[in-house]
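Limitations

Structures in this collection are predictions, not experimental determinations, and the ligand pose is part of the prediction. Treat each record accordingly. The example that follows, with flavin mononucleotide as the small molecule, is included so readers can see exactly what is and is not provided: the inputs are given verbatim, and the output is the predicted complex.
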Amino acid sequence: MKILTIMGGPRKGYGTIVMEKLEYELKLLQEVEFEYLYLKDVNLESCRGCLNCFFVGEEKCPFAKDDRNEITDKINEVDGVIFMAPAYAMHVPALMKNFFDRLSYIFHRPCFFGKIAIGICNQGISGAKYITSYFNLVADSWGFNFVNRLELLTVPYGGAEKKMTTKIQKTCKIFLKALNGQRYQKPSLGGVLAFRIRKLLYAKYWIDENNADYKYWFEQGWLDDDKKYYYDVKIGVRKRIIAGLICALVKPKFKHLFADDPELVIKRYMKLESLKF
Ligand SMILES: Cc1cc2nc3c(=O)[nH]c(=O)nc-3n(C[C@H](O)[C@H](O)[C@H](O)COP(=O)(O)O)c2cc1C
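Predicted complex:
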């Protein structure tokens, strides 16, 4: 079992102390390979917002040759990922935000199905809840099965270690249970809906063979008539009916939005020509 911890803080501080404790507790329960990826030590240029990754392909990112692909390769090799960062100004530190920005194309082209993720944030006073819920959102959108959020107050007041140990042990159990269990979970209504709406978009309104999203969705077979979700899984009738109804409501909007040639719209969008006041 391989686990990768993506460390989003700019120093080896309390976050490292906490993660080393979690690694220790995890290894008491089960033999696992545990690797740390410190974003502070990798070469990941800041996203410049060119939109190439979204529409042309991630290989057309002006910084495609920095460490971005090594990071995604690492994620592809492991069974579980831990997103870990301290609270900075009520959010993740800039390093981690840039990591999410640089990998933003994965929101459009999710690829980490069958992998388990958890999110951990250490804070001084407050903000950690927003951050772990952000980790949850990103991980879900990228295809992970996100199973646990852990917020820790890493201030050395009396008894802090004991409280943290209990929480860390609980997280280890949840993480391992998910790693050893059924990795491909039944999706939520929101998950089914996100799939169905995007399928509708690429199957009917945004058919552009030069578009990276369209190509990916097509190649994955997600645009096939019988595809109900990214992977084969039973989806309840209620979720299917609600998703179907919402898609029917969205159709006229798509018809209106994509009345122009989609390729032309994207070209204008990428050149900042879409808004002319
Ligand atoms: C620039 C900066 C911003 C911070 N913002 C917050 C914050 O919004 N909320 C909070 O609870 N703690 C905040 N803190 C405190 C850190 O989250 C806290 O000290 C944490 O334990 C640091 O983790 P580290 O030792 O792994 O770097 C901030 C610290 C720094 C340096």
